[in-house]
Description:
It comes from Shewanella psychrophila. The chain is an alpha/beta fold.
Amino acid sequence: MKKVIGLLAAVSLLTAPLAQASTVTVSGSTSVAHVMEVLAENYQKIASKNVEVQSTGSSAGIRAAKDGTSMIGMSSRNVKQSELNSDTKEIVIARDGIAAAVNNANPVQNLTQEQISQIYRGEINNWSEVGGEAKPIVVVTRENGSGTRGAFEEIMKLQRTVNGHKVTAISPRAQVGNGNGMIKTIVANNPYAIGYISLGSVDDSLRAVDVNGIAATDTNIAAGDYQIARPFIVLMDKNAHINAQDFISYILSEDGQSIVAEEGYIRVQ
């Protein structure tokens, strides 16, 4: 009996790494995770393979793909060359707009790109300065390491150079929310708040303002008219496990890209 138990234990130890390897691990951007979870759920139904998705932020996802702690990393901002190694492969799976979102009770319908930047720099502090009520603006931003924040700062020129290093120009008085969900909750419950979130996360609880007179829509982003937009990127090792490669192939397939579109993002295939 002891020999049988010992044999079973040995077989278990040998097969455990194989079982673990068969699970596709994905981590990173909370914005990308929104659509990735739906893609993973559908893929598991047709492929009978496990996919685990974790929202850890773009910077953490890039590091995880680079050091191998996740098979696939997710980023909702452009990846710097210094963050990659020679074996890391970048793949754009979708495109997304970043919405400047306000409370449904806010009468402001349109802001210029420069007005939004001035609001976030703390140069415009009252809604009356941009056609709204005479009420202080509650500015809400994402946490450091957020891909959405990185893309927003880059597009909106909300970075400055200090001693040779780029630092944020967003007002230190801005409230910080971790993830699109928290930003939505803050803005949906405060009629004088403004926050930026993934366009695919906009729902009836809040409203995306027009920017430079252009509505935040998939059509306008695809045409290049709505300027606050960024790619959704996945990263993996060139020699990644076959299951990870198959999952990426599914995402780029007609079925996968249809899900991308259904979830409110712009397909790339």
